[in-house]
């Protein structure tokens, strides 16, 4: 059996730090990302968390195969750096993470886009194991995507192939996205823009959402079930936006299966059937139906994927 790996999933809201051996997550800790304050300030805290994790398992650095980071944004996995990142951890492109890894732990280092990492996790160990053509869509702080085509992980000339599904335009008259484009899927329906989406609703002030300090999708789906008009409108708009994104991805990449994953999939009882029906009704797939599946590892797929990359 190969040595364990230190795997880090840099989410916009939470950073997950795990100790992973092949397809087994021995343990992981979730810490606040504070991504608006940048990554440099967080690195000493990440280092201490890793040291505590190793200590708890009676492991030293020499017992570890390597350290891998699954990061949002555009990632050069060859030069091992973050090229561009969208507001979250905005200082990350200036940081030499491989150097940090060597200085802190003296370990081999690997980095990949977080959605690609999640796709590898599901492809090698989860729901997509038996497929050669796969699209993964993550619903979380933002909307991520990744693609395997003919058993090849798509990266592209500039490392953007397949990962910009959340920035496909579904409303060209829409609001400005933080990527600089207008009417992206993320602008229309994602956690980072949910407060703005809610406040723009004409019935917001009368809604039970109005007094809430934090508006997330768990709250939206719960209040929609309870009949709140604003929550219903936001839920339905979001479902339509995610379905449009899914169809764009299917039309672009011709997969056998679409894997849905991410934190928002906690409301899968509503999301999965809606997107499945929308795709079956509107996607142009004369050969038959794309399989629509929920991922096996909604919280940990990226940890498994980045571990696989280090071991292979």
From TrEMBL:
SUPFAM superfamilies: Actin-like ATPase domain (SSF53067). InterPro entries: ATPase_NBD, ROK. Pfam families: ROK. Belongs to the ROK (NagC/XylR) family. This is ROK family protein. It comes from Chryseobacterium lactis. The lineage of its organism: Bacteria, Pseudomonadati, Bacteroidota, Flavobacteriia, Flavobacteriales.
